Amino acid sequence: MSDRLTWLGHSTVVIEVGGARLITDPVLRPRVGHLLRDAPVPGELGRFDAILLSHAHFDHLDTASLRGLDPAAPVLAAKGAARALRRSGRAVHALGPGDEHEVAGVRVRAVHAEHDGRRMPWDDRSSAVGFVVGGVYFVGDTESFPDMAGLAGTLDAALLPVAGWGPKTGPGHMDAREAAETLRLLRPALAVPIHWGTYRRIGHNPRGDPAGEFAAHAARLAPEVRVAVLEPGGSVEITRAV
User: Fold this and answer.
1) Is the pTM of this model over 0.90?
2) CB 80 within 8 A of CB 119
3) In the chain, % of residues over pLDDT 90
4) Domain spanning 4-237, CATH architecture
């Protein structure tokens, strides 16, 4: 089986690497609170070795979506997100930046995210992480930060958010240009834009093409990085230099 990435919409990506199969921030319903989905809802997704949760915001941690996934799959989650799953019935492993956990022979490492990941106002403000899985960096939600440069030269692929679900992204997020600028820090072989074109706030009609804008900025700012713009359900293989 080839290593590949399949984007299902928003921040939900199936990562298949090293024989392990994982899914990130699964939000898979037609409507989540005040957000409407503008992409098809995936069908049965099959077995997973683990579910990764970057933080506890409702557009990243949706308990109803989790209930529809492989019940045997454990959750690796930022600490605030882990607390929100105490009654989920799943095995939940809380990870902070620097913590590691092995999944089906593949190392998963949590890394810092510059994002307020609180589900509730009284939760830990710093409870958000990204994950590095066998050379694939899922950043979750974050602003760019200087320590990202420590991953340069180690990444086969980076999954980068390029937009939001409202008229602007706000603190703790990246827009298309900021995500392209981040490529100069990370220097991955492959970049896939995520967190765009899937959910929108009720009453908001998105304009523009954030993924296309990201690709255009990336071509100018980091031309050595291959960019794959996927439609929901689309896949790209991870290729490595021999």
Assistant:
1) yes
2) yes
3) 78
4) 4-Layer Sandwich (3.60)
